[in-house]
Amino acid sequence: MLKNKTAIVTGGTRGIGLAIVKKYLENGANVAITGSRQETVDKAMNELAEYEGRIMGMFPDLCNPDEVAKSFESVKNKFGSVDILANNAGISSRTSLYDYTIEEFSKIMDINIKAVFVCSQAAARIMKEQGGGVIINTSSMVSKYGQPSGCGYPMSKFAVDGLTQSLARELAKDKIRVNAVAPGVTKTDMVAALPKDMVERISAGIPLGRVGEPVDIANAYLYLASDIADYVTGVVLRVDGAAMT
Ligand code: NAD
After folding, report:
1. Of these residues, 153, 221, 223, 231, which one is catalytic?
2. Given a cut of 90, is residue 104 above it in pLDDT?
3. Which stretches of the chain are DSSP H helices?
4. What is the pLDDT of residue 226?
C-alpha cells in the first residue's frame, strides 16, 4: 500500500511508534525513525535489520526547527522524497493540578505540541515543493473529554486535534492531507507492566472488551497514509473500542 513512499515516524523506537514503523515497512515504504537517544534508535534499527537499505535512524531535538529541518532534508536526500510524517512521539502524565510544576507542564507541551508543530512545518515545506504528502498526528481518546488528573496531557492532545483540523484546511491547496489517530488504552510497555487484574478491569469498561494492541493503531496509520484515504483530511480517527475516559 505504500510502495515507493518514504515516511518519517517520530518516537518510532518503541510502543505505538515502532508498530507504525513495522507496518509501513511491511507495506513497502522507506522509513526514517526518530528517537530521543542514539541507543534507543540503534536498538530499534537492530530489531529491523532485515529492512536494511530501507530504514534510517536519527535523533534530532524535535523542538529545534534547524535540527529537524536538517534531519528531514537528509531523509529526502537518501530516499528522494518525504511523503508521510507520523507525529507520534509523546509523553503523558497523571500529576494532579496541585503538584504540577511549571517544568513538567513545559516538558509535556514541548514534546506533545511544539514538536508536532515544528515537524509538521519542516515536512510540509518539503511536501509542498514535491507536490503533496500526508501528515498524521497522534492524539488520544482523552482529547474529547479530558481526564481526571494530569491535565497537561489532555490539554496537549486537544491542541493536537486543533492543529490537525487547522492544517488540514490550510494545506489542502498544496495537496497535503492532515489527520490524527486518537488511540484508547493501548498495550505498550507501560500498560503491559500493569497488574493483570487491573488490565482486566480496564478491559471490562471498554465496549469491545479489550485494550488496544499497537498494531490496531498502526493499521489506522496505514489507512490514513495510503492512497485509499485520498479524500480524507481533517479527521481525528478514534481507535479505542468505543471506550470513554
Ligand atoms: P512510549 O513511551 O512507548 O513511546 C514514546 C515514544 O516517543 C518513544 O519512541 C520515545 O523515544 C519518544 N519520545 C518521548 N519523548 C521524546 C522526546 N523528548 N524527543 C523525542 N522522542 C521522544 O509511548 P506510546 O504509548 O507508544 O505513545 C506513543 C503516542 O501515542 C504518544 O503520543 C501518546 O501520547 C499516544 N497515546 C498512547 C496511548 C497508550 O495507551 N499507549 C493512548 C493514547 C495516545
Report:
1. 153
2. yes
3. 15-26, 38-47, 65-79, 102-109, 115-130, 142-145, 152-171, 189-192, 196-204, 214-225
4. 98
154-200 pLDDT tens trace:
999 999 999 999 999 999 999 999 999 999 999 998 788 777 888 88
Residue 88 CA to ligand 1 centre (angstroms): 6
Cα–Cα distance, 213 to 85 (Å, whole number): 21
The verdict on whether 153 is a catalytic residue reads yes
Look up residue 17 and give its amino acid: G
pLDDT tens profile 26-42: 999 999 999 999 999 99
Question: Domain 6-239 - what CATH class?
Answer: alpha beta
- What pTM did the predictor assign? 0.97
Q: What are phi and psi of 217, to 5 degrees?
A: -75, -40
Mean pLDDT of 34-62: 97
Q: Which residue has the cell 494545506?
A: 171
Q: Is the Cβ–Cβ distance between 2 and 107 less than 8 Å? A: no
* Contact between 84 and 5 (Cβ < 8 Å): yes
User: Alpha-carbon distance 204 to 61, whole Å?
Assistant: 39
Pair 157, 147: CB distance under 8 Å: no
Ligand 1 atom having least distance to the Cα of 141: 43
Ligand 1: residue whose CA is nearest its atom 39: 186
